[in-house]
Amino acid sequence: MKILQLKIKHFRNIDFLDLNLNPGINIFYGNNGQGKTNIVESVYTLAKTQSFRTHHPKEMIQYDQEEATIYCTFEKGKYLKSNTIILNKLGKICFLNQTKMKKLSEYLGELLAIDFTPEDVSLLKSSPKERRHLLDVELSALFPIYVKHLILFQKLLEQRNALLKQIKTFNEELLKVIDQQLLESSFVLFQRRKWFIAQIQDLATKIYQKLSGQSDQLTIEYKTFIDENNKESYIQKGEEIFLKNLEKDKEKTFTNAGVHKDDFVVYLNQKEAEFYASQGQQRGITLAIKLAIFEIITATTKEEPILILDDVFSELDDQKCLKLLQYIAKKNQVLITCTSIPSYFKQRENENVTLYQVSQGKVIERRMFNNG
Ligand SMILES: Nc1ncnc2c1ncn2[C@@H]1O[C@H](COP(=O)(O)OP(=O)(O)OP(=O)(O)O)[C@@H](O)[C@H]1O
Ligand SMILES: [Mg+2]
Fold first, then answer.
1. Could you read off the pLDDT of 167-203 as tens digits, one per residue?
2. Which atom of ligand 1 is least distant from the CA of 62?
3. 1-112+304-372: which CATH topology?
4. Is 36 in the pocket of ligand 1 (CB under 6 A)?
5. Does residue 234 sit in helix, strand or coil?
6. Which ligand has the minimum distance to the alpha carbon of residue 34?
7. Superfamily designation of domain 122-302
């Protein structure tokens, strides 16, 4: 998959940008605060309908403007497609091939992108919510059924919590109906998450070993409320847990156990990486996890996502930089941001590299690397 044209209007410090992107490596370079990350953030937002650095879409609309528009044409297999997102004060409107999409599940999964950004470094140390968010975002892009059940689950959970607050008029029958549906959706989310984490573990270990040049072992433990592959047994166990927790749930007016509390823990050589791995090792682990997700999406959809690497090369040691460079050299389309072009690229004159100099929200120069 590759993006051919990218158009951005009133997005952060980008007033207007109309850019042709090349296959291979696209490097956006320039001084701090010029709009490099904004450009790749807009691509990520087109793919996932949300940013990698804010949960508030309004922040992405240029100051003093009512709305921001991002548009791109991209090649997927033998098809030429387009995605458009309009961000305004009310939220976002998504178009696929100029047609407005009513459901998120219809829009997601067309343009595929994977990012590795400075924010990812804190993945292991951050809250379970952030790790669940990663699973939800990626699985939503992979499986429309996942988005459907995720939205349903969230709605049912809200209904259940609202019911728990009604002490005087508490309706036990209604609770049973909600619980049943909640567990049906939970099972779908659980199954996909379990599959995904097992895949990540296998691939991330191999990638991490390649990046570090050592035989380190990564293990990822999925922490969930019921680990049961048979649907009937899953639902039965779920009902038992809900019954056992009912008094506590009523007291707290909140559902204490469920897949909304899922998490995963990463171990480096059997030690919890969050506490024992160095800052650089944690960065390497999260990079390996993201690249593993890249491989899983490629294998599952038979399409290679756009790979976004924001400010990565300044943060990794030389060994990892060189290995990462070897890895991305074979990819369809990679978008990289950096303040100065890393010296590693200077040795690779024959690679398919395009340079874009970014200044004050504009691309002021675009050239092929081997011409300059
Ligand atoms: N909503 C907005 N409207 C206008 N400008 C914005 C908005 N949000 C952020 N900016 C501006 O965008 C600029 C930051 O852009 P960006 O994060 O892309 O920088 P960068 O080139 O990646 O820099 P660095 O090298 O420091 O990572 C800042 O100057 C910031 O003030
Ligand atoms: Mg940046």
1. 777 788 999 999 999 999 999 999 999 999 999 999 9
2. 3
3. Rossmann fold (3.40.50)
4. yes
5. helix
6. 1
7. RecF/RecN/SMC, N-terminal domain (1.20.1050.90)
Calculate mean pLDDT across residues 340-358: 79
| b/e burial code for range 48-68 (CB count within 10 A of at least 16 → b) | bbbbbbeeebeebbbeeeebb
Ligand 1 within 6 A of CB of 333: no
Q: Which residue's alpha carbon is nearest to atom 14 within ligand 1?
A: 33
Token pair of 49, please? 């309908």
Nearest CA owner, ligand 1 atom 7: 12
Is residue 250 a contact partner of residue 167, using CB atoms and an 8 Å limit?
Answer: yes
Return the structure tokens found at 78: 């033998």
How far is it, in rounded angstroms, from Cα 148 to Cα 158?
Answer: 16
CA of 86 to the centre of ligand 1 (A): 19
DSSP conformational letter for 330: T
- pLDDT tens figures, 285-337: 999 999 999 999 999 999 999 999 999 988 788 888 888 988 998 899 999 99
CA–CA distances in Å: residue 237 to residues 28, 54, 193, 228, 326: 52, 37, 19, 9, 48
Q: Where are the domains of the chain?
A: 1-112+304-372, 122-302
At residue 365, the pLDDT reads 87
DSSP string, 239-289: HHHHHHHHHHHHHHTS--SSGGG-EEEEEETTEEHHHHS-HHHHHHHHHHH
Structure tokens at 11: 């997005």
283 lines ligand 1 (CB under 6 A): no
Residue 65 Cα: closest atom of ligand 1 = 3
